[in-house]
């Protein structure tokens, strides 16, 4: 699969339209994971599913490491080209997590 990285950061050229299509692919997969889609709550934040969605679309998911799951939080991580991964989570009173994630 193609990696969408800029020449300035990684020495590889990318096509802006192709990167947008890859974002669309990633966002469709991430929407299935996000809590707002069907009010699914998680016992743990589904980092594996999130990284699979990002890497399957051609972005670099290996950049997310060592995230601490506190009661609430947010990360904004560069995943390639001009694209960032956003993940927001909140621990509900039940102890389960509400998770919202997308790339932009």
Could you give the count of β-strands? Answer: 3
Strand order of the largest sheet: 1-2-3
Strand proportion, as a percent range, falls in 15-25%
Series of H and E elements: HHHHEEE
Task: Indicate the low-confidence ranges by residue numbers.
Answer: 4-13
Q: Which geometry do the CA atoms define?
A: globular
Whole-number tally of structural domains: 1
Kindly provide the radius of gyration, computed on alpha-carbon positions and rounded to a whole number of angstroms: 14 Å
Structural class: alpha+beta
Termini separation (Å)? Answer: 19 Å
Mean pLDDT over the residues: 80
Largest sheet: 3 strands, antiparallel
Helix content: 25-40%
Instruction: Count up the helices.
Output: 4
Give structural notes.
Helices cover 35% and strands 24% of the residues. The protein has 104 residues and is of the alpha+beta class. It has one domain. Strands 1-2-3 form a three-stranded antiparallel sheet. Helix 2 runs antiparallel to helix 4 (47-56). The longest helix has 18 residues, at 16-33. The protein is globular and about 40 Å long. The chain starts with 6 loop residues before the first helix and ends with a strand.
Brief sketch in words of this structure:
With 104 residues, the chain is of the alpha+beta class. The chain has helices at residues 7-10, 16-33, 35-38, 47-56; strands spanning 72-80, 83-91, 97-103. Residues 4-13 have low confidence and may be disordered.
């Amino acid at each position: 699969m193609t990696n969408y990285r800029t020449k300035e950061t990684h020495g590889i050229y990318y096509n802006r339209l192709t990167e947008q299509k890859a974002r669309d692919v990633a966002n469709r997969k991430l929407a299935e994971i996000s809590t707002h889609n069907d009010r699914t709550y998680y016992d743990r934040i589904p980092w594996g599913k999130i990284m699979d969605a990002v890497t399957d679309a051609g972005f670099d998911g290996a950049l997310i490491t060592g995230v601490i799951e506190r009661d609430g939080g947010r990360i904004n991580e560069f995943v390639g080209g001009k694209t960032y991964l956003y993940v927001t989570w909140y621990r509900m009173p039940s102890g389960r997590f509400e998770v919202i994630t997308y790339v932009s």
